[in-house]
Amino acid sequence: MSTQHADLPDVSGLSIGILGGTGDQGKGLARRFALAGHEVIIGSRSAERAQQAADSLGEGATARGAENAAVAREADVVIVAVPWDGHKATLESLRDELAGKIVIDCVNPLGFDKQGAYALPVEEGSAAQQAAAVLPDSTVVAAFHHVSAVVLLDPEIDQVDLDVLVLGDDREATNTVQALAARVKGMRGVYGGRLRNAHQIEALTANLISINRRYKAHAGLRVTDV
Amino acid sequence: MSTQHADLPDVSGLSIGILGGTGDQGKGLARRFALAGHEVIIGSRSAERAQQAADSLGEGATARGAENAAVAREADVVIVAVPWDGHKATLESLRDELAGKIVIDCVNPLGFDKQGAYALPVEEGSAAQQAAAVLPDSTVVAAFHHVSAVVLLDPEIDQVDLDVLVLGDDREATNTVQALAARVKGMRGVYGGRLRNAHQIEALTANLISINRRYKAHAGLRVTDV
């Protein structure tokens, strides 16, 4: 197992753009990657709100803000952390800027009612597969679905205790994203299958929300025997 | 968190029936529950094959075999470990015998092709929801999807290193199944949400199969912060 992880590429020089980076999930990831020493660019429809988010990441976490299109153009790797209802339209509008890049989709299509969260049906199968359909010239990888924004943003939490499941059909791209996950203290990137099996990874976030509610926790997953 | 687990009922006296207990998953669970001191009855369409399976569990694991209908009638709690393609018909035929009981569904509706495993669509949403639809007088709980049969059957493995996600809409029943999971050395039962969120837990087995293939492992899941 250790061999598999040792084979991952050096990604320390990659700049990371985060579309929809003003939401808690995006900000949390921005904060952890900035702390890990990456150049981080937070994207939003408004450059001003993006800059505000970038300025709010706390001590030691330096990032800048820009409009989503500039972020998509400038960053080496782009994380999609937009709300599900803007997912397709946002990606369609950035197709040219995202061409040739690794695009990491962490969006969870969920609905909420009195009984909690549940998975929404997605025509393409999953948010990640929708991204792949909309972005034929990008390499889409699904990852970072289960990281608690609360944990990522908590200045008291030094180690993020979970594995990030990384799904995709391109080995080089999934290796890169596994390596990126490992840049965050405590996190590990574990290959989790092909993109066609992304639906259940996204949907599993509904279960984690149930777990959090029952146990008053910020639950994550670890994969055993790997 | 410890409080939550301490509140679980004493289930040491419950007898456990396993429908489709001649398959590896069923035999593996039978073996571990027998080792934990439970009365275990393995079910099959053929009482003879059931008895053969019961006799094959290895040192210290005592069980008996019977036809599925007898198992469903006699056992306090019944685990459904039949192949997906016989799932609905088997349960329909046992509706009366299973009335009033906790029925634990661990069936994963999966397809396989050259690229590995993938989730099959299920009209009712999931195998567990299909069981609930077919067994209106039983209390269906979904659990034990991710335990590797190889690990369960390996006489060299003393501790099973994973959490069992337990899903259901009846608190007393999910508590009982969490407690049953904890009877197996190393295992823990963690509440994982309502039955409507069972699909992704079943489907996640496809990802674990991908992980096993990539890392040459028998992967399981642990829930952090719980």
Automatic annotation (TrEMBL), chains A, B:
Q: Would the keyword Oxidoreductase turn up in this protein's UniProt record?
A: yes
* InterPro entries membership: NAD(P)-bd_dom_sf, NpdG, P5C_Rdtase_cat_N, STEAP_metalloreductase
Q: Does the keyword Isomerase apply?
A: no
- Alphabetical UniProt keywords: Oxidoreductase
Which Pfam family, an example, fits this chain? F420_oxidored
What are the residue boundaries of the Pyrroline-5-carboxylate reductase catalytic N-terminal domain, all occurrences included?
16-109
Q: What is the recorded name of this protein?
A: NADPH-dependent F420 reductase
The scientific name of the source species is: Actinoallomurus vinaceus
Q: Which gene is annotated as encoding this protein in its UniProt record?
A: npdG
